[in-house]
Design a protein that fits this description.
This protein has 439 residues and is an alpha/beta fold. The chain has 14 helices and 15 strands. The protein has an eight-stranded mixed beta sheet with strand order 3-4-2-1-7-9-10-8, sandwiched between helices. Strand 1, helix 1 (16-27) and strand 2 form a beta-alpha-beta unit. The two termini are 42 Å apart. 44% of the residues are buried. The structure holds adenosine-5'-diphosphate, aspartic acid and magnesium ion (MG).
Length: 439
């Protein structure tokens, strides 16, 4: 039988009404066999995600404060869902165990993981599916990286025993049996791992928007849906802030050539976005999408005739390596080199870095500028359309916005521009409208 793996995000499982939509989607197709669930997310904009409520409880306990009220609110979220769905299910024993664990200073990841654990127990009962705990099927190495060999073997065996099952997202086990989570938004990664282990024909990632949009809907009003996007384009956009899907979720399915379909739980009739290994369909917009992030700094190093000095770049990058800092981009000129890094990464050691680069690279000057936002313009169609970079730059300049950095990927399917953080929104809107208006 064909197997589809579905992942539902927090807003798709935020309350009983959302659970009903999820059940209708799952039941509409018997090949929808394995469901990965997130913790209850926001029901309305000011609401708090259960994962954040759990982190709060952890912090309270760490400060030796009482968690009673905070934990009662979490219980109420789940009890509300159970009651409204009319389920014959008591989570009281689970709540007691979790609460005691928090009071006895259980690990932070364990505490956070209980959000998906409890929601998956409810969803499994509601759907009449088996519950497979991610603790028994998803494993990390000692150094915290994902242990693919152990995981795929164990998880495939567990899935083979259940025709239909729910698996909690976001977490797995360390070699010593303690719980570890992926980074925030990590249920997307679990979904991809389950899809791979189940040899699924498709990984459906159900969320609250009708697919990957050409721009962040919080910045551009009503952006167009991207019908088809390659894994590579999606990773570039996800990394640069198109957070609809965790950028690490690509790897497990890419290796097995499993397509991903991003869908909307609140509009299941919409086709969503297909994420595919390769595509020869080209959009009329030339670019596939645009995304960006704030919080970058540029280290600018000046030295006369730097371009003729063998090993200059290595000396500069060596300094960053010694400080354990990765860099995003390194555009160079004849006598200057800039290295763009995350502001948060260099903040604690700025002066030391400047001093070391001066010394090791024998630079004439080293300066650091903060408040840079990076915008990535991504598209497989860019290579076939001359003048894309020109259109990007003109659209920004027409709004009187100063461009602080430009970098074009050598694969010619992305352009990165850096602008001041205060110009970020206007620049992103300008780029979007340049390509979509002209489409
Ligand atoms: P889930 O809880 O289902 O995992 P997320 O909140 O993690 O959902 O991701 C969906 C959200 O991502 C959307 O509601 C939207 O606000 C945001 N988002 C940012 N950039 C994009 C984009 N380019 N396309 C779609 N959504 C985006
Ligand atoms: N619940 C987790 C988070 O809020 C994981 C997820 O939603 O994917 O980050
Ligand atoms: Mg998410």
């Amino acid at each position: 039988m064909e197997t589809k793996v579905l992942k539902f995000g927090g807003s798709s499982l935020a309350d009983a009404a959302q659970f009903r939509k999820v059940a209708a989607i799952v039941r509409a197709d018997p090949s929808r066999r394995y469901v990965v669930a997130s913790a209850p997310g926001k029901r309305f904009p000011e609401d708090i995600k259960v994962t954040d409520m759990l982190y709060d409880c952890f912090d309270l306990a760490a400060r030796k404060e009482n968690i009673e009220d905070a934990f009662a609110k979490i219980e109420a979220r789940y009890n509300g869902i159970v009651a409204e769905l009319g389920l014959d299910l008591s989570l009281d024993a689970e709540f007691r165990k979790i609460r005691m664990a928090i009071e006895h200073h259980a690990g932070k990841d364990y505490v956070a993981s209980r959000g998906e654990y409890l929601n998956s127990l409810i969803l499994a009962r509601y759907l009449g599916f088996a519950f497979i705990d991610a603790e028994a099927g998803i494993f990390f190495n000692e150094n915290g990286t994902f242990d693919d060999k152990h995981t795929y073997k164990a998880l495939a065996a567990l899935l083979a025993e259940a025709e239909y099952a729910v698996v909690p997202g976001f977490y797995g086990s360390m070699p010593n049996g303690t719980i570890k989570t992926f980074s925030r938004g990590g249920s997307d990664v679990t979904g991809a791992i389950v899809a791979r282990a189940a040899e699924a024909s498709i990984y459906e990632n159900w969320t609250d928007v009708s697919g990957m949009l050409m721009a962040d809907p919080r910045i551009v009003e009503n952006p167009r849906v991207i019908e088809e996007i390659t894994y590579r384009e999606l990773r570039e956009l996800a990394y640069m802030g198109a957070t609809v899907m965790h950028e690490e979720a690509i790897f497990p399915v890419r290796e097995a050539c499993i397509p991903i379909n991003i869908r909307n739980t609140n509009a299941p009739e919409d086709p969503g976005t297909m994420i595919v290994p390769q595509s020869d369909r080209f959009s009329d917009t030339v670019i596939t999408g645009v995304a960006g992030r704030k919080g970058f700094s540029s280290i600018t190093i000046e030295k006369d005739r730097m371009n003729t000095e063998v090993g200059f770049g290595r000396k500069v990058l060596n300094v960053l390596e010694d400080f354990g800092i990765s860099f995003e981009h390194a555009p160079t000129g004849i006598d200057t080199m800039s290295v763009v890094v995350a502001t948060a990464a260099i903040a604690p050691c700025k002066d030391a870095i400047i001093g070391r680069i001066f010394r090791d690279a024998n630079a004439d000057s080293v300066t650091i500028e903060d408040d840079i936002a990076l915008i990535a313009i991504v598209g497989r169609g860019m290579v076939r359309n001359k003048g894309t970079a020109g259109r990007v730059l003109t659209s920004i300049a027409d709004r009187d916005i100063n461009i602080r950095m430009i970098d074009q990927g050598s694969g010619e399917n992305n352009i990165i521009v850096g602008v001041s953080e205060s110009d970020y929104t206007a620049a992103l809107q300008a780029i979007y409208h340049e390509f979509v208006r002209g489409a």
